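can u do me a favor
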């Protein structure tokens, strides 16, 4: 009895070799693209964005029972120290909190920040008849009586890096600051350094 032809086995080996060749090519492409991104990133040497609050004041402050009213003005300094990266701020939200309670919210206009640039952002945050918890209202009264109140300013922005003509994908930038506002005319605002998370 004659042996069956070996042709099907040869076809299986050929298919296996083709799949293996495609897998090797794809892996090589992934490694090459990864190395290109890494080399580009190292050449650019990205630096952390730097945020501070340069000035802060409060007007028309009134805490009646547990209800807060007031207008809070802040001058935020945004520094892009990168020599080759510029930034697009496509949306910016700013909130003001006391303790764990948000008391005011606003948005800022989108803008483009060139490399090695300092941009100053003015924001007005208005608290209108905000109902505080009993504990928060008590603590705020005590802080105000001491002459200064610590608030929390939080900034959340959707940003894109631009390298040359290339704009990278959106990322979320979070900035957190804890400025002290003075209720005494004898004290001036002290610059507050912020934490950034990107």
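np, heres the sequence
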């Amino acid at each position: 009895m004659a042996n069956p032809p070996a042709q099907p086995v040869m076809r299986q080996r050929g298919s296996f070799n083709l799949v293996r060749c495609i897998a090797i090519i794809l892996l090589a492409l992934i490694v090459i693209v990864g190395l290109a991104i890494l080399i580009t990133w190292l050449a650019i040497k990205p630096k952390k964005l730097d945020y501070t609050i340069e000035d802060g004041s409060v007007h028309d402050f009134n805490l009646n029972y547990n209800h807060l009213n007031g207008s809070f003005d802040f001058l935020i300094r945004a520094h892009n120290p990168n020599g080759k990266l510029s930034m697009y701020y496509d949306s910016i939200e700013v909130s003001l909190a006391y303790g764990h309670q948000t008391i005011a919210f606003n948005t800022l206009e989108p803008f483009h920040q060139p490399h090695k640039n300092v941009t100053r952002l003015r924001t007005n945050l208005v608290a209108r008849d905000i109902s505080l918890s009993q504990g928060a209202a008590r603590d705020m009264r005590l802080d105000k009586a001491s002459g200064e109140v610590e608030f929390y300013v939080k900034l959340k922005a959707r940003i894109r890096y631009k390298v040359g003509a290339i704009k990278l994908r959106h990322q979320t930038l979070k900035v957190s600051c804890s400025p002290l506002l003075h209720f005494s005319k004898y004290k001036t605002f002290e610059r507050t350094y912020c934490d950034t998370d990107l």
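The domain at 50-197 is CATH 2.60.40.10 (Immunoglobulin-like). hope that helps!!
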